[in-house]
Automatic annotation (TrEMBL):
Record carries keyword Oxidoreductase: yes
InterPro entries on file: NIR_SIR_4Fe-4S (IPR051329), NiRdtase/SiRdtase_haem-b_fer (IPR005117), Nit/Sulf_reduc_fer-like_dom_sf (IPR036136), NO2/SO3_Rdtase_4Fe4S_dom (IPR006067), NO2/SO3_Rdtase_4Fe4S_sf (IPR045854), NO2/SO3_Rdtase_FeS/sirohaem_BS (IPR006066)
Annotated Nitrite/Sulfite reductase ferredoxin-like domain residues: 94-156, 341-406
Physiological role: Catalyzes the reduction of sulfite to sulfide, a step in the biosynthesis of sulfur-containing amino acids and cofactors.
Protein name: assimilatory sulfite reductase (ferredoxin)
Lineage, highest ranks first: Bacteria, Bacillati, Actinomycetota, Actinomycetes, Geodermatophilales
EC number: 1.8.7.1
Cofactors demanded by this protein: [4Fe-4S] cluster
Pfam families: NIR_SIR, NIR_SIR_ferr
Catalytic class of the enzyme: oxidoreductase
UniProt organism field: Klenkia terrae
One MF term in the entry's GO annotations: sulfite reductase (ferredoxin) activity
Keywords (A to Z) from UniProt: 4Fe-4S, Heme, Iron, Iron-sulfur, Metal-binding, Oxidoreductase, Thioether bond
Length: 552
């Protein structure tokens, strides 16, 4: 979708918005992108860096453009969290990379999963993480091995292109699209069309910041449309026609904001054009002066949905979209698709919980085997660090559940195992302040021991820094990593929630918990909830009204 032309419009400094004629680089990141498109780095990796090794990589590519191909340098081992903000990037980074494999719509075949598993085992020291963006992240990747890794991924239809960087990142989709009988519509064709048209398209390879999308017809709202930059949510209009409600401007990090409805109805055949229009509005009107002010949520905050809709229609779509309805309220707030779920064809989908997304390469290969043995080799990733195996017949369900449980992959997990998430943390991330995944695993086990009968849905999200990759602000109990008295600890957020009563978690002023004390703290707060809740009261509702001194 082309930029609108505005002949004669004078250049204005503003916030560095291209549409206002101000295209000069405003910060080092904008200069880096102007010097060379991020997509150009692929050829240099293949032709030069894979031969010279890490020391031969241009700094602008190493800490900038390589993200366009899904590559981040990982944190050097042994650097404590207190050094995160005081060391330069080159002092924090190791000579190894995290490599993010994008899995649009969360859809994988057994063959694709085996390829990822093989890469993890052969090149990544057996480490793999399923993320809350439906991707798989590998670690310990050497630049010398990247061309071979790309060749293996692309041979089975996978890619790392624009998995990171100031680009349209993976398109979230319901992992059970086309499978569950209660979905509004199957969004798989829309996800596929957007990816086929625009993945790697230089029209959108230089956005002000990252651009996160979801397209889903799921009745459970499993792709968390409230916190995406753009989201298409399945609805039916007054005539009974299935289509999408359009939401724009969501995002968390240090300035959390929920997306807003534009109030339009998007037909399935319009999705790719409308998606491209929203992306182009962001590209042309997004704020490029400051990186911390560059996400589309800031533009939406200033414009509001009315003006955004008008600009989208007038300058990019060149047609008006009809008004449309809001989404229906889902039957449950549990969006992770964990458990045994009946498919529309009579088979079953088995969603199972990993430990905060961490899974080894060998175990990924085992999951592929189980998916073929008990199903048809279809696997899905979720937006909550979980996996789903499709197409399991009734008479094989319990055998498949047992086969997964033998590897500690739980189809019927405890509340704590099911709904605890954690970001990468200090183990690999250069921004992190504390360790997360191992701590969350230990916390889960301790809560299972102390509160074995706790059965109320509850999300516990553990984040290594303020950037909210594990969505700590929208969890019932959110932990944001920080240094407390020279030790690893967390700031506590309580009562966050996504859904019809979406809310950002309540931050208790000055309240910090040492990492070693988190189990004690959570146990006390949950016992208080069990004692003082009203009939049917959720933890989020309780935390909103509870006395702050008690919550401390």
């Amino acid at each position: 979708m082309s930029s609108p032309t505005r002949p004669g419009r004078p250049a204005q400094k503003g916030q560095g918005q291209w549409a206002l004629g101000y295209r000069e680089p405003l910060n080092p990141n904008e200069r880096m992108k102007k010097d060379s498109d991020g997509l150009d780095v692929r050829q240099r990796i293949t032709d030069i860096y894979s031969r010279t090794g890490f020391d031969g990589i241009d700094p602008g590519d190493l800490r900038g453009r390589m993200r366009w191909m899904g590559l981040y340098t990982q944190r050097a081992q042994g650097i404590p969290g207190g050094k995160t903000a005081v060391l330069e990037p080159e002092e924090l980074e190791d000579s190894f990379f995290m490599l993010r494999v994008r899995i649009d719509g969360g859809q994988l075949s057994a063959d694709q999963l085996r390829v990822i598993a093989g890469i993890s085992t052969e090149f990544g020291r057996g480490v793999a993480d399923v993320t809350d963006r439906q991707n798989v992240q590998l670690h310990w990747i050497r630049i010398e091995d990247v061309p071979e890794i790309w060749e293996r991924l692309e041979a089975v239809g996978l890619s790392t292109t624009e998995a990171c960087g100031d680009t349209p990142r993976v398109i979230l989709g319901c992992p059970l699209a086309g499978v569950l009988d209660d979905e509004v519509l199957d969004a798989t064709p829309a996800v596929t069309e957007v990816v086929d048209k625009y993945l790697g398209d230089r029209e959108f390879s230089n956005l002000p910041r990252k651009f996160k999308s979801s397209i889903s017809g799921c009745a459970h709202h499993c792709t968390n449309h409230e916190i995406n930059d753009v989201a298409f949510v399945g609805v039916r209009n007054a005539a009974g026609e299935a289509g999408y409600d359009l939401w724009v401007g969501g995002g968390l990090s240090t300035n959390p904001r929920f997306a807003e409805r534009l109030g339009v109805f998007v037909r399935p055949d319009q999705v790719s054009d409308v998606w491209a229009g929203v992306c182009a509005v962001f590209r042309d009107y997004g704020y490029r002066r400051s990186r911390t002010h560059a996400r589309i949520k800031f533009l939406m905050a200033d414009w509001g949905p009315g003006r955004f809709r008008q600009v989208l229609q007038d300058e990019y779509l060149h047609e008006a979209l009809p008004d449309g309805p809001a989404p229906d309220r889902p039957a449950t707030d549990q969006r992770d698709h964990v458990g045994v779920q009946k498919q529309v064809d009579g088979a079953n989908a088995l969603g199972f919980a990993l430990h905060t997304g961490r899974i080894g390469g060998e175990l990924l290969a085992t999951v592929a085997d189980i998916a073929e043995q008990y199903g048809q080799g279809r696997i899905r990733t979720t937006a909550d660090q979980k996996l789903v195996i499709l197409d399991v017949p009734d008479d094989a369900v319990e055998d498949a559940v047992a086969a997964l449980a033998a590897h500690d992959l739980q189809v019927r997990p405890s509340v704590f195992r099911r709904q605890t998430m954690a970001c990468t943390g200090i183990e690999f991330c250069k921004l992190a302040i504390v360790e997360t995944k191992g701590h969350a695993k230990e916390l889960t086990a301790e809560l299972e021991r102390r509160l074995p009968d706790f059965d109320t849905p509850l999300t516990i999200n553990v984040n290594g820094c303020p950037n909210s990759c594990a969505r700590f602000q929208t969890a019932d109990i959110g932990f944001k990593g920080m240094v407390v008295g020279g030790e690893e600890g967390f700031q506590v957020h309580l009562g966050g929630h996504l859904g019809f009563e979406s809310s950002i978690g309540r931050k208790l002023r000055g309240h910090k918990v040492l990492a070693t004390d988190t189990a004690d703290y959570v146990e006390r707060v949950l016992r208080g909830y069990l004692e003082h809740r009203t009939d049917g009261e959720s933890f989020a509702a309780y935390a909103t009204r509870a006395d702050e001194d008690w919550l401390r």
